């Protein structure tokens, strides 16, 4: 029962801020179960020069047990429909969010690979799993452009964001979007609970194919050969420098229960020690102009998915919502909070 509850929490988020979306099937792109991948676009009445891109969160899997159960850790099937937009940053009222008038492109998560995979594998038992999250994004952008749903050439204000696996994707796919947008485009990343502070055995669970895909995706944002140690955060100066055109805000609970106990191979207290260490995301971003961290001392996993969690504050009395707003509005000047 505990495992089922964890999986439920990873997969399900609540539609708080309803927008009307158009579902778009992406030719040649697949969910983990082999069915056709689709994305959701909200553009009616919105400013086409402003685009907010959300990557859905939801765990990761590395074998039949974690992909299908009983050790379920993600979801590899398509969403039947999208009732509403989940992230509080795209509320349609200006008082709640500066992104209220942005078009929204929503990428569902159904490949179990933090949007970094480009291969298909058959584990010891069960059907094949298509870990094609990275290639799905690339195919989606090509199709959306060719079909006229979006025009990235004209986008002047681009915001990438997501929670959990989607938080990782918001960092990784900055390189994917860079290939399409103008050099003058305003670029913002809001990575909510991407983890980055894992135990030394974290990578051992993954197959060689997954590690190759991860390495390829990470290297595109300045993170070469990070698979030797789970402490990815100590490379923050590298990816911040590689993404110097982007303003980056990272929200990370110090004792994040999911990124420590469920996936990270460490305890919440060990995770806390890493987050606040000299090589953790809080200390390292304090001296980097385009990167900032918001690291409250809590077990909470994500912050921008509900109005309740978005109101959580650090000891500086800065809420998750306010931090995200400061990053977007360029009012943070590289400051980090705990």
- Helix-strand topology string: HEEEHEEEHEHHEHHEHHHEHH
Share of residues in helices: 25-40%
Count of DSSP strands? 10
- How many DSSP H or I helices? 12
- Number of folding domains? 1
The biggest sheet amounts to:
8 strands, mixed
CATH structural fold name:
Rossmann fold
Q: Can you give the mean pLDDT? A: 90
Quaternary assembly? single chain
Biggest sheet strand order reads 1-2-4-3-7-8-9-10
Any overview of this molecule?
The structure is a single chain. The protein has 338 residues and is an alpha/beta fold. Helices cover 28% and strands 19% of the residues. It contains twelve helices and ten strands. β5 (119-122) and β6 (128-131) form a beta hairpin. The longest helix is centred in the middle third of the chain and has 14 residues, at 133-146. Residues 1-17 have low confidence and may be disordered.
